[in-house]
Amino acid sequence: MSRTSSSPATGVDPRLAVVVLCFGGLTTALTQTLVIPIQGELPVFLDSSASSTAWVVTVTLLAGAVAMPIAGRLADLLGKQRVLVATAAVLVVGSVVCALSDTLAPMLVGRALQGLAMGFIPVGISLMREIVPPAMAGTSVAAMSATLGVGGAIGLPLSAWIAQVGDWHALFWVAAGLAVLVTALSWFAVPHVHDAQPGRLDVVGGVGLALGLVGLLVGISKAPAWGWGDPRTIGAIVAGLLVLAVWGLYELRQADPLVDLRATADLPVLMTNVAAVAVGFGMMAQSIVVPQLLQLPEITGYGLGQSLLAAGLWMAPAGLAMMVFAPVSGRLMGTIGARITLMLGAGVMGVGYLAALVLMDAPWQLLVASCISTAGVGIGYAAMPTLILDAVPAREAGSAVGVNALMRSVGTTLAAAVMGTLLTSRTQDLGGLAIPTEGAFQLCFLVGAGAAFLGVVIAAAIPRRTAATPASGPLATAGARDR
Fold first, then answer.
1. pLDDT over 90 percentage in the chain
2. pLDDT higher than 50, residue 392
3. What digits encode the pLDDT tens for the residues 460-479?
4. How far apart are CA 97 and CA 91, in angstroms?
5. Cα–Cα 20 to 30 A to 124, which of 74, 186, 297, 374?
6. CB 305 within 8 A of CB 109
């Protein structure tokens, strides 16, 4: 395909396609945080218990984790644009089901479908290599990568406002409307390049991966509630790991596996995916800790007494900072290389956490610290898919980026569990309620910083690319300059 100002097959301007893909990424990420402002009221809304309605959040996380590598593989087999349209359509259906729900069961079905739509982001990232000029590739991937965090940050205040001024069902009607728009734009404004590869979908491998991930992630996500030493937690994690081990052995024996584990084991891909866990952990930690600190009563001496809506508004600029720094990441990758850009992004994120240790006395101070951290996320997140795309053949791009997105999801899940555990490990009594101490918040910031700086160390272990290394696409231009 000739990479000129438009696709020769469709006449679509690649810049328009990039905007559409980023809008789709924002929309799918936004739906992941829709229910957080109303989570405490879900037992009343759905006539169920708090422990049961907690699955409204968890099921979306699980479905998204499973969907990303499978959607990537489907994109390699069927064509990326087709899969993008399909995932957007699934988001429409899931949002409508949620909007029509008044009980728990249909809500869980709808939220699972919304989670499956998360496959849109890795597929969109892998498609960009094929539809944009080489000069745009780094910045485009950076912008699309940032949508995962930006959508979540924007979703919190938006959903809090909608829930306050209207019926809670309106949250999902808005999501459905956005999803319809994404579906239409993905069909008409994203070029359909002929990128389908011969092969078959490894259904058994997909089921095995799903079972293993569900077991592992359920154990991790429920650990703060069940306890890390609880037999349910240990059993779920061990069962998940055992299933994944058997799945891995099965995949290695397949001629056409769901995930090419041999390619995944190549050092550049392996270390990038390990770094993704650390960076994903660092991104999520502040999203868990900062809102709680903002909303604690001022009577504690360190709480900042903000409403849910106000806390969301204080957090929103951090998401915008992530988007602003995404183009910076693209330029950095073109000059210093993707590996060093990832190290820089993780380092900046760690500095943001250290800044939060001394910037806890006012909402604006936490805003500054959060913006520093998310600027690092914006820089680092874009570098990871670039490193992956530079290291794998084009026929496996969708699957490989999907696995990388999965590893980031594992990091965010682990962060939510660890932060929840730390915040409940050091508490004080306030009117009969156990609330986290100031030291608990400081410990969370230190752990977040540690995860970010660990990401720097892991990224440093990613092998440098040299000019002699074969490139797999236009994104390899940045990787070939790595120092």
1. 28
2. yes
3. 998 876 543 444 444 444 44
4. 10
5. 374
6. no
DSSP notation for 27-55: HHHHHHTTTGGGGGGHHHHTTS-HHHHTH
Q: Report the candidate in 366, 309, 324, 281 with the shortest Cα–Cα distance to residue 165.
A: 309
CA-to-CA separations, 229 to 224, 425, 460, 482, in angstroms, rounded: 10, 14, 34, 44
Residue 243, C-beta contacts closer than 8 angstroms, at least 6 positions apart = 208, 211, 212, 215
Residue whose entry in the numeric block shows the structure tokens 């994404």: 182
The Cα 299–Cα 93 span in angstroms is 45
- For the chain, count helices (H), then strands (E): 19, 2
pTM: 0.80
Q: CA-CA distance, 151 to 112, in Å (whole number)?
A: 18
Question: Which residue has tokens 């936004």?
Answer: 30
Q: What's the start-to-end Cα distance of the chain, in Å?
A: 30
Interval 29-45: pLDDT, tens: 888 878 877 777 888 88
Instruction: Inform me whether the pLDDT recorded for 348 exceeds 90.
Output: yes
Determine contact, residues 71/126, Cβ cutoff 8 Å: no
- Tell me the pLDDT tens digit for each residue of 198-225: 777 788 888 998 899 889 888 888 888 8
At position 465, the amino acid (one-letter code) is R
C-alpha 100/C-alpha 282 separation (Å) is: 36
